[in-house]
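G., the chain you wanted modeled:
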Amino acid sequence: MSNNKKTVLIKVSYLVDMEDEDLSKVDGLLDKITSEVSEDINLQLNTNEMISLKWEGTSSRVLDSERINCGKCANCNGWVTDIEKEDPIKELCYGATVDGKLLCDECLPPEHPCAF
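Predicted structure as tokens:
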């Protein structure tokens, strides 16, 4: 690699709703999805340029708002993590709790420091 090139880690997250049995079943939906997204891919950026992306890693975690810093936005129902609390989930939309309601950055009041 030449001195003017940098390696960039691009993280992509998918949210998938699935039944409990699909989480634990061998070769269930979770295993099938993980297998499909865990492959090297080629991207056609334009008619003259093709780039190969080498797969580096895949992980999954159950979003359990009783046990980890996540929940649904009280306004738009999108998944969000409270950036003002401990252990925010970096792959989720950032938000905060206002008047007891968890709100994503787009639904926060405009004067809130975390508002988008």
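The two ends are 37 Å apart (CA to CA).

Shout if anything looks off.
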